[in-house]
Structure formats: C-alpha cells, structure tokens
Amino acid sequence: MKTRSQRMALSATGIFVALLFFFPTYWMLTTALKKPGDILSTEYDLIPFSATLDNFTTAITKPGFTTFLTNSLIVTLGAVACALVAGLLAAVPLARMRFSGRRGFVLLVLVAQLAPLEALFVPMYLIMRDANLLDTLPSLLLVYMAFTLPFTIWTLRGFVKGIPIELEEAAMVDGCGRWGVFRRVTLPLLGPGLVATSVFGFVTAWNEFLYALVFMRDQSKQTLPVWLSSFRTAFGTDWGGIMAASVIYALPALVFFMLVQRKLVAGTTAGAVKG
Amino acid sequence: MSAPTVNPLLPAEAPPRAARPQRRFTAQRATPYLMLAPAVVILVALLGWPALQVLGISFRRLDLGELIRGEIVWVGFDNYREVLSDPEFWIIGLRTVLFTGACVVATIGLGLGIAVLMRHLDAPVRVALQIALVLAWATPIIATTTVFQWIFDQQYGILNKTLVALGFDGFAGYSWFTSGVSTLSVIGLLILWQAVPFIAFTLYAGLLGASKDLYEAASIDGATPLQAFRAVSWPALRPLLTMVTFLSVLWDFKVFTQIWALKQGGPDGESTTLPVLLYLKGISGSHFGVASAVAVLMLLILVGVTWRYMRLLVRSQETEL
C-alpha cells in the first residue's frame, strides 16, 4: 500500500508532467491573446494580465488567409469523403464475404498502411505534372485520399466485423435484400466507426505538409500548414499574429480529436502482435 | 477503451444458401470484386504505380532537361553509384539513423514511464495529465512547430527568459539554432512532445488490460512492486512495446515536416536528414533520378531495420484472415 508521502510525490510528478505537456498549448493561446505591444518585451511575462482579440483580426485579415483556409478545407474534406466511400465499399466484403483474393487484398492494405509514402513524392510530382494537375487542388485531394484509404479500409473492416452477424441475418429473414440489410442495419450501427475513421483521416490530411509543399508551387494555391510554416514572410516577427493563426489552424483538429480520442487508441492497437 | 471485437465462433460469411439459378450466382460472385474496385483502382494508381515508378526512375538520368524533352535515358546503377560515393550521403545517413534511434528510445522510455505513472495516479491528477497529453497529440505539427520556434526564440523566447530568471545569465540572447546538434535536439524535443502521448496511451491501455486479480494475487503472494511489474505488467506490455517501437522507427525515420519548417536542414546542412536530402535533390535540385535512388535506399534501410517485425505482423494477420 502507498503511504501518504508516496502519493504526494506521485501526484506532484503527474502534475509536473501535465504542465510540461500543457505548456506549448498554453503559450500559443496566451501569446495569441496578448496585446501586440506586450509580446516583444523583455519582461518576464509567464502569466498574461490583459487579453485582446487583435492578433486574431491581424491573422484573419492577412492577404490570402481565407483562400488558404478554404484550400485546406476542400482538400481535407474532399479526401476524407472519397476515402470513406471507397473504404466502406471495400470494408464490407472484406469483413463479411468469402471470395478468392481476399487474403491478398488485406495484406496489400496492411503493407500500404505501413509504407512510408513520403518517399514517393518524386514520381507523384512527375505524375501530377504529366496530368497537368500541379498547382490544382485535385492533385492534393487525390494524394490525401490515397494516404488515408488503407487506414480507413482497415479500421472500417474491424468495425463491420464487430457488428453481430445475427442482426443482419434477422433482417434477411424479415425480407431485407443485401442492400436493405446494409442500409437499415449495418450502416446505422457503423455510425461511431465512420466518425472515428473520418476524424483520423481529417487529422492526417489537415496536417500534411510535404506534398502540399511539392505540388503547390503557386503561392495562391498553398494550404494552411505551408503558409504557416513560411510565416516570416507573412508576419515578420509578429509572434502574436502567428500564434493566433496557429490557434485557428489547430482548432478543428483539436475539437475533432477530443471527440474520438478513446476509439483511436483502441483502433491502432487492435493489430498488435506478440513478438 | 474497447477495441472492435470479433466473435471467433461466428462464421466470417453468411451461411451457404440453397442453390440458385446460374445467372444470379455469377452476379453474386462478382459483388465483392465490384465493391473492392474503387479502392483497388485508387491504391494501384496512386500508390502502386508511383512505387514502381520510383524504382524505374532511379535507373534513369532524369534532370530538368530530360524532363522537358521527354527523353528516357537509362543509366543503370549510375545514380546509386553517385549517391553512395558521396561522403555527404553517408554522414546524412548516419545522422538520420542516430537521430531516429535517439528519438525512438526517448519516446518509448518516456511513454512507458508516463503510462506506469498514470496507472498509479489518483483520478483528478490522472485526468489532468490525460487532457494535457491529448492536447499535445492533437495539435497539428506545424502549429506545434511555430510555437516551439516562439518558445526557443533568441531574444524574446520564454525559454531564455526563464533560464535568465533562474540565474543562468549566459542564456540572454542565446541562439539554439547555431549548431546541427542543438537544432536536432530542439527538433527531437518537438517530435517527443507530439509522439509520447500516443505511446503513453497505448501502453496505458495495455497495463489496464492486465487484470486487477493478477495484481492482487501477486501482492497476496508477497511480490514486491518490481516483481509484480515483471510478472504481471510486463507480459501485457511486451507485444505493445514491440509494436510501438516498430511504428516509432517507421515514423521518426521519415520525419520531414518539423525539420524543414524549423531550419530547412540548416544551419549549413547540419540538421539535414535523408528525407530532407531527398527533397533537396528531387525538388530543389530537379535531379529526379538521383532523388529516386535516395528514396529507394531509404526504403531499403527501413525494410532492413523492420523486416523481422513486418514478417511477424503479416503472419499474425494471416491467421486471422
């Protein structure tokens, strides 16, 4: 049994580690809320005294901000939607039907999920160049869709398998066809799985940097992360503005992530093997 | 944290049905293939084809001139010879391996420590820690990178200010990005900060998976905490540790975003790793053939390092198919 002092020491360590991990987020938020004049000061200002939204106004009114935000939203949401449709179509037969070539396909998906796709940007760049898709949003949308598809198939297959087959059989007995079973039984039960999977896809695509940097040579076609990374050209040393922009960029990912964090841990560890 | 479970007693497919007319039968047999078709097309066209291409291009001379003229010039192993005979490649390769190793060891160590800590914490502190970890995990990479740049800022960064306030006056105006080692350390911290939460949560889930009864039995039998850890926690953790190590190697080896966004491989190329070299050769330099050779070599190194686990993973999935 733990003594009182042991518990205190444990709690203190826990709080210290929590503060450490919390600090960058805290610092991003408080800097974004500081008065622009207070940021570049030599005062030791760990705790802010005044708050203003000026920095957010600065960030939003930067030339191109709305364009970059829209670009990011289009490629991310587009990729997630396409991957979800193709992934669901593939997950159902992989989980429920028996046909030759199934094992091979599942292995293909597994390998694709592990493959370091970052190493493929040279041929991807050349392919997009040949297709006249450089500097267009579809090029990124296609690549992000391909990036998130293996994981989408893999996880959705698990979720489909998790639905008791008796439910589907019962619906068949009651006169539903294959499509009816899917629409009335499988799809509604898959709801949480679809949400979790699409959040993961969203975070992956929302984060992606390398391909956006390679494909979008035209500045007006950039996505948010690429624009943010070159903030010195846009913001100079206006740290308040850049932190406000970072907060805006981080917000959707944070919100979605919080919603499904528990499921993600379970999903990614489902394939662990003894070694 | 329940994983999607599969009941092994249930058949994987619907039970066989009575014979049907031939036409219906073929339509039904085509169904799975039709449903798989979109995914197959996407995976083959956007992953399989580029993977073949990178291999093909690595045996061609493909600079801007050849690209514009649309020429195909096969040069055998020339690109590989060029890359491998460049001492710079070996320095960068070694740096990448060491950097990956350091990041993996640090993330796994910290992640394991935090997982064990979480198991022993009282609920309010544990929840606070978990919230902090999720925030760190979910913040987009580039947002975190900009915050780190601000924290480590030479003149107004809070880190230098704190160090000065603590009495280390030498850190007033100290630049953290003047040497490769120092820059890579900051990048390592950045990676750690984002990667540890996933590892900690995964291992924590593993620890919770070991049943409370086992711990009770161990303590009744008079086991010390260390013995209990070895006999109860460790068997539950081992497969997960292998998996997160494997994933960390895979992820840390190919890190590009943080390195590029922070100092673009600088100062003076001292924080350049293989993925950055690949970008410099391929996109900045337009030497697509040489860059592809670098990419193939990178893939070979990765496969070499992770081969044993890959085989294990594939085999374990096969039995489950």
TrEMBL record, chain A:
This is Carbohydrate ABC transporter permease. It is a multi-pass membrane protein. The chain crosses the membrane at residues 9-29, 73-92, 104-128, 140-160, 181-206, 239-260. It is found in: Cell membrane. The lineage of its organism: Bacteria, Bacillati, Actinomycetota, Actinomycetes, Pseudonocardiales. Gene3D superfamilies: MetI-like. CDD domains: TM_PBP2. It holds the Pfam family BPD_transp_1.
UniProtKB/TrEMBL annotation, chain B:
It holds the Pfam family BPD_transp_1. Residues 1-21 are annotated as: Disordered. It comes from Actinokineospora xionganensis. It is a multi-pass membrane protein. Gene3D superfamilies: MetI-like. It is found in: Cell membrane. This is Sugar ABC transporter permease. Keywords: Cell membrane, Membrane, Transmembrane, Transmembrane helix, Transport.
